[in-house]
Amino acid sequence: MTAETPSPPAVQPIDAVKLFNEFQSQSRARAEATLKLVMGISGGMLTLSVGAVLGGMPARIPSHLLPSLQLGWILLFFCIAASVLLMCSMIVATFHMGVKMRKTLEGKSPGFVFVATWSWLRVANGLLGFLILCSFLAGIGLVGYVAIGVAEDVTKAGSVQQPASKSSLASPDRSSVTNRST
User: Fold this and answer.
1) Nearest to 37 by CA among 136, 128, 144
2) What is d(CA 182, CA 141) in angstroms, rounded to the nearest whole number?
3) Each residue of 143-157: pLDDT tens digit?
4) Helix 13-54 vs helix 66-106: angle between axes, to the nearest 10 degrees?
5) pTM of this prediction?
6) SS in 3 state form for 134-175?
7) Residue 60 dihedral angles phi and psi, to the nearest 5°
C-alpha cells in the first residue's frame, strides 16, 4: 500500500489576485521606503560636505581631490532629483493602472485580466532605479574618498590646527615679548 502525498489545495483565482495585489503593495512600499532613505542619506551627505567646504572655517581640500568632490556632489544631487522623478513616475503608473482597471471592470468581461501599466514605463522605472542606486553608491564613495584624502593630508601636515580660543586672543603670550630696555 503506497501512501499518496496530499496535493496542495487549488488556489482560487480571486485568492491569487488578492495575493498578487498584496505582493504589489508590499513591493511598492519597500521601493518608496528605499527611495526616501536614499534621498535622506544623499541630502545629509550633501549638506555636511558642502557645509564643511563653504562653512565658517572651510576645510582645506587638496586640489587633486576637488574633481572627485565635485563629481560626488553631482552624483548625490542626481540621486535626489532622480528619486523624486521616480516617485512621480510610480504615481503615474499607479494612476494608469487604475484607469485600465476601471475600464476592465466597466467592460464586465468574465474572468480575470492582468492589468499593468505601459511596458516602456516599467522598463524606464527599472533603469532609473538602477541609475539611482549606482549614483548613490558612487557619490557616497567619492565624498568618502575626499574625506579620507583630507584627513591624510592633515595627518601628513603634522597636526590638526585648532581654532584660537577667545581667551588666547585677548591676552597675548608674554613670554614672546622681549624687554629692549636693557
Assistant:
1) 136
2) 62
3) 999 999 988 887 887
4) 160
5) 0.69
6) HHHHHHHHHHHHHHHHHHHHHHHHCCCCCCCCHHHHHCCCHH
7) -90, 110
Long-range contacts of 158-165, Cβ-Cβ distance < 8 Å, separation of 24 or more:
163/57
Per-residue pLDDT for 160 more than 60? no
Burial of 179 (0-12, 13-18, 19+ CB in 10 A): exposed
Three-state SS at 110: coil
Torsion of CA 45, 138, 87, 106, to 10 degrees: -160
> Which amino acid type is present at position 84?
V
Which grid cell sits at 171?
A: 591676552
CA–CA gap between residue 152 and residue 149 (Å, rounded): 5
43 secondary structure, DSSP code? H
Q: Is 148 exposed, middle or buried (0-12, 13-18, 19+ CB in 10 A)?
A: exposed
